[in-house]
Amino acid sequence: MKHPDWLMDKLRSEFARSGLNKDIGNPPPSIRCALGHTVAARWMLNGELSHWRPPNPEKCGECESQEQKAHYIDTLIDRFRKVGIPEEHQEWSLGWAPAKEYGKVVHAGIRTDFRDVVMVDKHNQHAYKSCLGHQRHNWVLFSGPVGTGKTTFVTALMMDMIERDPRRYSKPVWTTESALFRNCDIAGAKDYAERIKMLDKHIRSGLLVIDDLGASRRPLTDWQGGAMRDLFDDRHSRKLPTLLTTNISRWEDLAKRYGEHVVSRIHSRCKTMNVLGGPDRRMG
Ligand SMILES: Nc1ncnc2c1ncn2[C@@H]1O[C@H](COP(=O)(O)OP(=O)(O)OP(=O)(O)O)[C@@H](O)[C@H]1O
Ligand SMILES: [Mg+2]
Ligand SMILES: [Zn+2]
């Protein structure tokens, strides 16, 4: 590769301005790194000692930026795994939307391209808008039939929040209602304090997803009902962001399962229930 004329002109004039009457000559030819990127010589400006530094194939800028990017993505994927996000739900991002359509753009700052931006259509447009307007203390609640994208949306929102602001949310947790109860049971098999510790991990999490509230049609046991009251009560008063999905699509039915106390708190932080419709997206 030849250094472009404009660059040579710029270098010459910069060198001339430094008061030295010497031509910068021609750069040594560019070479290729092991991966075939072009690595060019660089003009080192240093008074009398100014000179061309020959290209070093070990110091390829393109390779270095690719390594940084790979490291960034690996770190993020590792984080998602530790949070408990299932691999199948790690593929989407809400991305960002043009300001004129969706109001203020709040999702800038998503740098990766290993996640795709969710598809938005007439069945989920309202939900997408409400996610883009999400403020960090707000909760969100998605409901709707099987396969309409509830888990996709809350998980994409959670990953975007983590990616945008990794230090803001301490110990994020992604779980389902049934996994939450199961993990408390497993921990509680050893001793009661362990059960409380497990529940506490969810109560105190700086960013919590509970997927599939009410998926089990079995009524809650006394302990489970009490655990949910503690969890929602505490998270409500501490303003800890909580993202929920359920296939129960009426507030009355949620109240039948969790009680007015819980539903009032969910309602106060979520304001609306985002009901997703349309076909089962797994079918086509
Ligand atoms: N907005 C979207 N853009 C692209 N793909 C989507 C979108 N929403 C959902 N999908 C795809 O559709 C499938 C079902 O989505 P998802 O699991 O989020 O549905 P769900 O409502 O949580 O279903 P369930 O009630 O069974 O838990 C997934 O494979 C997901 O990748
Ligand atoms: Mg789901
Ligand atoms: Zn290279």
Question: Could you explain the architecture of this structure?
Answer:
The chain has 284 residues and is an alpha/beta fold. It has a domain at 91-275: P-loop containing nucleotide triphosphate hydrolases (Rossmann fold), CATH 3.40.50. The protein has ten helices and eleven strands. The strands form four sheets. The chain has a five-stranded parallel sheet with strand order 8-9-10-7-11, sandwiched between helices. A two-stranded antiparallel sheet has the order 1-2. Strands 3-4 form a two-stranded antiparallel ribbon. Strand 5 (92-93), helix 3 and strand 6 form a beta-alpha-beta unit. It is elongated. Residues 97-106 have low confidence and may be disordered. The chain binds adenosine-5'-triphosphate, magnesium ion and zinc ion. Residues 118-119, 124, 146-152, 247, 281-282 line the site of adenosine-5'-triphosphate (ATP).
Write a brief structural summary.
The protein is an alpha/beta fold and 284 residues long. It has 10 helices and 11 strands. The strands form 4 sheets. The protein has a 5-stranded parallel β-sheet, with helices on both faces. Strands 1-2 form a two-stranded antiparallel ribbon.
Give the topology.
Blueprint: H1 5-17, E1 31-32, E2 38-39, E3 42-44, E4 51-53, H2 61-83, E5 92-93, H3 99-102, E6 116-117, H4 125-132, E7 140-143, H5 150-164, E8 173-176, H6 177-190, H7 192-204, E9 208-213, H8 222-237, E10 242-246, H9 251-258, H10 260-270, E11 274-275
Parallel strand pairs: 5-6, 7-10, 7-11, 8-9, 9-10
Antiparallel strand pairs: 1-2, 3-4
Magnesium ion is lined by residues 150-151, 211-212, 245.
